[in-house]
Structure to design on (283 residues):
């Protein structure tokens, strides 16, 4: 049980025919809650830090990344570190030294040719640095300032284009737009399962589902059966965390942040454990 590599967790999940959850970390309490969930479930998971979370940490990736790595090294479960939705190469190039074994290079909003050329450069750098690199084709909406919604016509990932994109760029994993959207607070997304099946048939690398918080449990299971491997989850944990903080603040007069952060950390653990069961099944 230790800090492991994303590629190993993804490959093991794919071989075993289940998914691998990748949970977003914003604060140390998120990471601690996720690590507890992985230990309770007896499953390895990915801890991921988004470019937006790095912005929250005032642009400094190292302090939170090193804390995540130290947590993983001491954990009673296998944990890997992934740098998510990286939008500039400066941050990408800091990934390896910060302890990440994988990154998602996010050029999904660019026109196809620009996405291909910038992603190919990112892949070349990542492979030289020993990192597994994910990219996006199609556009999963719902991020702050997102130009379009994934539910808009024409932005779902096309299988033929996806096959060409993977061949041209050499990416190790592909995020696909199949009906989910980022930051949904209700679990009402409907996925195009038939499209996922066609993508799996045409695309040789593992498929990644973003915006999984808005996807109901049965739909997540069906998506994994159809071909999704890496399942990215953020908002669901934030809902649990923030609800616990609200209750903790409302119910006490202490100014000690531990009074509400401890229940928030536990709420993250409970929410993450439920999702690990859905994505991985029971060991
Ligand atoms: O990359 C991260 C995810 O796509 C998380 O999306 O916050 O909607 O679960 P979510
Ligand atoms: Zn995402």
């Amino acid at each position: 049980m230790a800090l492991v590599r994303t590629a190993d967790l993804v490959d093991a999940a794919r071989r075993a025919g289940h998914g691998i959850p990748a949970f977003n970390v914003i604060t140390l309490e998120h990471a601690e809650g996720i690590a507890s969930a992985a230990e309770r479930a007896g499953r390895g998971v990915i801890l991921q830090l988004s470019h937006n979370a790095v912005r929250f940490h005032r642009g400094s990736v190292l302090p939170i990344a090193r804390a995540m790595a130290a947590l993983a090294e001491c954990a009673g479960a296998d944990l890997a570190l992934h740098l998510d939705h990286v939008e500039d190469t400066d941050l990408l190039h800091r990934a390896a030294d910060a302890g990440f074994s994988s990154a998602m290079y996010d050029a999904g909003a660019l026109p196809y040719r620009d996405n291909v050329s910038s992603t190919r450069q990112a892949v070349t750098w990542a492979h030289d640095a020993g990192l597994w690199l994910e990219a996006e084709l199609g556009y999963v909406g719902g991020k702050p300032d997102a130009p379009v919604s994934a539910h808009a016509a024409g932005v779902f990932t096309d299988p033929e284009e996806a096959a060409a994109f993977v061949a041209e760029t050499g990416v190790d994993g592909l995020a696909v737009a199949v009906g989910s959207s980022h930051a949904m607070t209700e679990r009402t997304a409907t996925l195009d399962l038939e499209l996922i099946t066609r993508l799996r048939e045409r695309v040789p690398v593992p498929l990644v589902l973003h915006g999984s918080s808005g996807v109901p449990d049965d739909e997540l299971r069906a998506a994994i059966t159809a071909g999704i491997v890496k399942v990215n989850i953020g908002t669901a944990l934030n809902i649990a965390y923030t609800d616990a903080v609200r209750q903790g603040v409302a119910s006490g007069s202490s100014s000690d942040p531990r009074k509400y952060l401890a229940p928030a950390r536990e709420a993250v653990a409970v929410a993450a454990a439920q999702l690990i069961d859905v994505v991985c099944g029971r060991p």
In short: Residues 6-280 form a domain with the TIM Barrel fold (CATH 3.20.20.70). The longest helix spans residues 258-280. Confidence is low (pLDDT under 50) at residues 148-153. The chain has one domain: 6-280.
